Amino acid sequence: MRILLAEDDPLLGDGLRAGLRQLGFQVDWVRDGEAAERELRAQPHAAAVLDLGLPLKDGMDVLAAVRQAGVSLPVLVLTARDAVPERIRGLDAGADDYVVKPVDLDELAARLRALVRRAHGQPHECLTVQDVVLDPAARSVGRAGVPVTLSTREFDLLHVLMLNAGRVLSREQLEQHLYSWGREVESNAIEVHIHHLRRKLDAALIQTVRGVGYLLLREKPKP
Q1: Which of 47, 131, 136, 169 is the most exposed place for a label (fewest CB within 10 A)?
Q2: pLDDT tens per residue across span 163-221
Q3: Which residue, among 42, 40, 136, has the nearest Cα to 96 in the 3D structure?
Q4: Hey, how many other C-beta atoms are within 10 angstroms of the C-beta on 143?
Q5: In contact, 183 and 28? CB cutoff 8 Å
């Protein structure tokens, strides 16, 4: 899952990026409000962690601007501003969650997973499509009750496809979800990961829509 981190404190930002990466997130880190707004408007991320006390443009102004522009990306505000009026203002400006520093990394990760899950209309922690069950917190996958071993990239790709089950995603969209800045993407990486998922799960689970992209079927094809 690829997220945007907007935090100007170098020590805290580095710690959050490293910690979230260890918990399975791909993290892009920006350090000022203008960069945060630019990336939020581009919307290549699944969610964002937004500090309010950013240089160049205050995080609250960034949030208000992107919501006014119609950006629906889940945003978790992470800030030292703990006064109740500030919390109310942040939520009214469009924050999906408001957390006061310091925060436990496991809790932050759980809140991000919940935001992404709700944004895709998924009520349960575990995703289930056909006989495949994916647990984002445990980073585990099972098919018909049998555990399936996936690589990190295979798991992340399956996660994106299951969140968007029934919807065609292009290779470019999948690459955006899987790779943060500075990560080299081989030209056939998505195709290779799709091949491995079909072999480990079910050849008919993921359909190729020629010239468009890939589709994870909600239901098994009828014979």
Answers
A1: 131
A2: 999 999 999 889 888 877 656 666 788 999 999 999 999 989 999 999 999 999 998 87
A3: 40
A4: 16
A5: no
